[in-house]
């Protein structure tokens, strides 16, 4: 038996060179993502702000990101996602270097808002590029590679940030800004061959007009179906640590190890899982991912031991590995010619909306009604998303083919 059978990333081998360049830039950028996770400590510990004022400053970042995502998506369609991505990386790196200079609350808020508009433009632009570069046949694998780069980078960035914060907090800003600039330099040195979507149509094919359309209505329905399970998944960043530490009595270090375990599973299994499910329908994959997410968090109502918690982490990690690459691929396929960036902007915005609602609502439910009610509710929400996903419309092949035919000409490999 050949050794390549044991390669967990072998399903990526058909992806074009440009997909790997984009993944490299994403990896470098995420490896340096260490300022935002420590921003609250900087605002309270270094600048002396009250926790409430620090929270308001971060809320300003979150609100600005909701506006930035669809705006960046439209700019990607108009000027090309690669240009927006390069500009996002270079400008956000410079803005991060400016953050230590802001010491008053209003100046901090102003810089954070600017950072949101520059840094958050990265997400819709990069997702639009992933879809363009991979082509329709390898789109799910392309998004799996994108998540692999993100998870590898995020497994390094906050850990290194914690070490730097002990010796020199200011160094977090310098390193984070430098990695953003380096990622931008990589894309400039090795320019991607993707064609701007608004220029990519073949003769006689017009760019899809903006405004309501069958695809747009399907996008709205899909994002509506996705929101309940997003509220469930984002409990990992809000109520799960409270549950594990305050109710089950585990240390914060044990909670941190859960994320290390989560990342390890994703790195080793996500690409193979998406390769094996590449020919599944979107409806089937998204419904299964939503159900497993609800099941994983819902099972916490019965968890009293570390082994039981680990079992639930495995379940919702499998759900994450199915749900998010497939959902991004679905939106990418759903987008009409010339509007992929816009659609990815709305998709990215849904995560910001979920983060602004999910953790706070979950904490309120846990405080007033108890953790058992919270976890039972997450199971119900997962079922709601699964039921809604079973009714999503299949993607019509024609709009995607008109754009992706050009991308397939650039492909160095692929599957038929």
Can you characterise this structure?
The model is unreliable at 195-207 and 397-416 (pLDDT under 50). The relative contact order is 0.16. Helix content is 75%, strand content 0%. The chain has 16 helices and no strands. It has a single domain, classed as Growth Hormone, Chain: A (Up-down Bundle), CATH 1.20.1250.20. By secondary structure, it is an all-alpha fold. The chain is globular and about 50 Å long.
Q: Residue-averaged pLDDT, rounded?
A: 83
Mass-distribution shape: globular
> How would you name the CATH homologous superfamily?
MFS general substrate transporter like domains
**Residue share in helix:** over 70%
What is CATH's topology name?
Answer: Growth Hormone, Chain: A
Helices and strands: which structural class?
A: mainly alpha
How many separate domains make up the residues? Answer: 1
Q: Report the end-to-end length measured between terminal Cα atoms.
A: 25 Å
Supply the CATH class: Mainly Alpha
CATH architecture: Up-down Bundle
Which stretches are low in confidence, meaning pLDDT under 50 for 5 or more residues running?
195-207, 397-416
Radius of gyration: 21 Å
State the helix count: 16
Present the secondary structure layout.
Elements: H1 17-31, H2 39-46, H3 51-79, H4 81-98, H5 105-119, H6 122-134, H7 139-167, H8 170-189, H9 214-233, H10 239-247, H11 252-276, H12 282-298, H13 306-334, H14 340-369, H15 371-389, H16 397-410
Helix pairs in contact: 1-6, 1-7, 1-8, 2-3, 3-4, 3-5, 3-6, 3-14, 4-5, 4-6, 4-8, 6-7, 6-13, 6-14, 7-11, 7-13, 9-12, 9-13, 9-14, 9-15, 11-13, 12-13, 12-15, 13-14, 14-15
């Amino acid at each position: 038996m050949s050794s390549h059978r044991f390669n967990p990333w072998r399903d990526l081998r058909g992806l074009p060179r440009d997909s790997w360049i984009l993944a490299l830039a994403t990896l470098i950028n995420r490896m340096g993502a260490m300022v935002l996770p420590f921003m609250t400590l900087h605002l309270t510990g270094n600048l002396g702000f009250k926790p409430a004022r620090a929270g308001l400053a971060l809320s300003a970042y979150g609100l600005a990101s909701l506006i930035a995502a669809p705006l960046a998506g439209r700019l990607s369609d108009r000027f090309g996602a690669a240009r927006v991505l390069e500009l996002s990386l270079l400008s956000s790196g410079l803005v991060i270097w400016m953050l230590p200079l802001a010491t008053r609350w209003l100046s901090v808020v102003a810089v954070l808002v600017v950072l949101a508009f520059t840094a958050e433009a990265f997400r819709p632009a990069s997702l639009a590029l992933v879809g363009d570069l991979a082509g329709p046949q390898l789109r799910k694998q392309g998004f799996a590679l994108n998540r692999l780069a993100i998870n590898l980078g995020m497994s390094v960035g906050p850990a290194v940030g914690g070490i730097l914060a002990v010796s020199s907090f200011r160094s977090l800003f310098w390193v984070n800004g430098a990695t953003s600039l380096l990622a931008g330099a990589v894309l400039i040195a090795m320019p991607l061959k993707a064609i701007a979507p608004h220029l990519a149509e073949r003769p006689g094919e017009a760019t899809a007009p903006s405004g309501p359309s069958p695809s747009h209505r399907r996008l709205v329905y899909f994002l509506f179906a996705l929101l309940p399970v997003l509220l469930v998944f984002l409990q990992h960043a809000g109520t799960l640590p409270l549950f594990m530490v305050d109710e089950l009595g585990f240390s914060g270090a044990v909670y941190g190890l859960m994320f290390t375990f989560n990342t390890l599973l994703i790195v080793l299994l996500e690409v193979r899982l998406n390769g094996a499910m590449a020919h599944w329908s979107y409806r089937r994959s998204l419904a299964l991912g939503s159900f497993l997410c609800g099941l994983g968090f819902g099972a916490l109502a019965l968890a009293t031991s570390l082994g039981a918690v680990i079992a639930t982490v495995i379940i919702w990690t499998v759900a994450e590995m199915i749900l998010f690459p497939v959902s991004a691929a679905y939106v990418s396929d759903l987008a009409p010619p010339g509007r992929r960036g816009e659609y990815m902007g709305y998709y990215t915005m849904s995560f910001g909306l979920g983060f602004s609602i999910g953790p706070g609502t979950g904490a309120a439910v846990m405080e007033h009604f108890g953790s058992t009610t919270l976890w039972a509710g997450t199971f119900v929400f997962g079922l709601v998303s699964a039921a809604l996903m079973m009714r999503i419309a299949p993607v019509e092949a024609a709009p995607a083919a008109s754009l992706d035919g050009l991308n397939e000409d650039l492909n160095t490999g692929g599957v038929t």
